[in-house]
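Hey, can you fold this one?
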Amino acid sequence: MKASDLLVAALEAEGVEYIFAVPGEENLDLLESLRTSSIRLIVTRHEQGAGFMAATYGRLTGKAGVCLATLGPGATNLTTPAAYAALGAFPLVMITGQNRSGVRRQNIWHNSRRRIAECGPRLGLMFRRRACGVASADVRVSFA
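Sure. Predicted structure:
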């Protein structure tokens, strides 16, 4: 079982029905795990579209909307929907991809941790997975 399978199982346990996403190299494992799950993947053309769709889903249903983006500029494109959700108090969970350090050339534009830090403290929690054993606990905290 891969970490992405555990993440998808934890999202299913939280009642996630849809994920609004832009596919990319960094989130292919997660997309593959979603193929066999009950969660419906809604592919968008731009990360902001995914973020706004997830925030609006949260606004209309009261359940957390979930969006998925690639690393770097993809994560940065979620900042406006994050502000929209924060201002309206809409439940929103954002997931971004991240390469392991040293695997490929990376610079400051492809560092999700730096991108999310730019969003400010209102975004809540961010987890960097090193071990798969606690993925469900991390997801539970994000939905609390």
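Residues 34 and 128 are 20 Å apart (CA to CA). Let me know if you want another pass with a different chain boundary.
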